[in-house]
Queue: 3 jobs
Job 1
Amino acid sequence: MSDNLHQAINSGDSDEFVTVTIADQLFGIPVLVVQDILGPQKITKIPLAPAEVGGALNLRGRIVTAIDVRRRLGLAPKDDDAECMSVVVEHGGELYSLIVDAVGEVLSMSADTYESNPPTLDPTWREVSGGIYRLNGELMIVLEVNNLLSLKSLAA
């Protein structure tokens, strides 16, 4: 977990997350790293790019790399005709579009409901998870954007 996220969680304050759904699993992206939310976009494929790179899109004149989070998490791809949404984040001075199934609401979570990753969490998911929050009947996995976009991980 990043030091910033860990400090925010342990500050005793609430933490805010943009919720996204990927393959019926709820994830939270810290609101402070989210630059924009986009509806369905035209994504241009990039030849010879890693499988997780869905392509590139144009965001107000800037070329943004689109990351297929389903593939990054080792999940089956979505049907070609299914519409997706994008959460734009910044990493290393560049903008990335995280392609997700759906974007939900912004949740304010109390730091005392935070838990470390359970030992049963898939190793690929554990690598990109900053911990979990238990909600009514489901878990929200916190996406650690820096780990999700790690070039070493994408190349592997």
Note: Confidence is low (pLDDT under 50) at residues 1-11.
Job 2
Amino acid sequence: MSGYSVERSITVDAPAAEVHRLVDDFHHWTQWSPWEDLDPNLERHYTGADQGVGAHYAWSGNRKAGQGSMEITGSTPQDIDVAVEFLKPFKSQSLSHFGFAPSGAGTVVTWRMTGEQKGLMSMFGKLVSMEKLIGPDFEKGLTRLKNAAEQPG
């Protein structure tokens, strides 16, 4: 078993509250999540709170999208924590953390995922690092988040 941590940041020309709003409500993730275009027929289920702590999102899709769920476990104006559980293609659990720090008139957004590689993921991790596997997705998602937050509303 081995632990991993993948982190990326981007500066967004929008107030922290606007960026926070897009992350704190799973209904907005369709605008920016790097995985939303993996399956045009992705099934989504939203339960719990509408946003913030207790908001829950489950998905089921094709082989690329897989199946899993997320729940917001912490939410302050500066941070959001999301517990992530994948059921397919591999079972895994991780924690995503989003940080929002003011920077001039904008916001530096940092997205970090941490977890343990167990079972098949541990063997797979010996071939491909989580950094190489997830890092480009984080960059894509943060760019989409930036574009969504900077759109005139």
Note: The chain is about 25% helix and 45% strand.
Job 3
Amino acid sequence: MQLSSGVKPGCQKVIVYGTEGIGKSTLASKFPMPVFIDIEGGTKQLDVRRIDGLRSWSMLMESVSYCMTIPDKCSTIVIDTADWAERLCVDHVCASQKNKKGDAVTSLEGFGYGKGYTFLYEEFGRLLDLLSIAVERGQHVVLVAHAVMRKFEQPEELGAYDRWELKLKSKSNNSVAAMIKEWADCLLFCNYKTRSVEHDGKHKAQGGGRIMYTTHHACWDAKNRYGLPEELEMDYSTIAHCFIIPEVTPVPIEPEPAPVPASPTVAEKETVAPPPEPIPAPEQPVLEPDPLDEFEQKLEPDDGGSQLTWRDMFPALAELMDANKITPDQIREVVAKKKYYTLDTPIENYAPDFVSGCLVAAWPQVKAMIDESFDGLPF
């Protein structure tokens, strides 16, 4: 148990959503040292660092894991957009699961009884868990999303009214939109300020400037934990003070004093010759690597090009496998048998909480399944 009190500074989880073309990605580009995981392909006109060409859910998870390994070059992980990430998640769920008859499905409705939305809710939660680890390690996370207007009816009201919501799947208790709103520290709704002007006895609507709404309203979802005003201009300078990367001052290490040599005796002075003076080596130019070279390499789907192998990512699992002479193919076959991941999914694509919570924590059961499945096979 660890008891703490007082304000605890740290990085934040932010959602920026609004109507199309209002400048959500531009706002996200102003956060500290951002790297865009550009799923939608909407940052081509922005001078930002990005990882694009993502065509699968596993590539998205790999991109987040890669950004977590370079905190000195990436202070903010930006996912653009959350609703396009959800589309990749839907395709992944439909490809990795089967319906009650054992047939492949093409949509969430094909599972029946709302099970498709449950699978989507659980899989998208793994992405949020991974992003939460990045926040704990000192990186901001920004999810950019589109807004959609839906009918809303409260139980105590007589009629329904329109309100802006996240453009994400919503199904009873398994709502991805509700889960993301609970997960975020700050939910900013961006829209145009509309004013009503009277002219010749008639009222006409006129468009105003771009506004960020920071608190909940009957017509939109928003929240913040920084005491921000209800309305702000859509400018990063109005919220920049909330997203400062905490600096850690290194403690200087004083070098140990060199030992004082003992004075030579008279005999040593006569027999021991003085050491020759060292010849200085010629100075060589030091070539500094370009930190942006890594971002010019695009991720390819499941080609094993990630810098970290599964042994580097999951050392505890590698140690157990080596001790029991278990191969990666045996692990993948048992995981596929339990329908956690497909057989062709590399171990590098497994979620960290799945490896630590299922494979490592329940290793005796995993090994028993492997021994039972591969009994009598030559290895």
Note: Residues 294-306 have pLDDT under 50 and may be disordered.
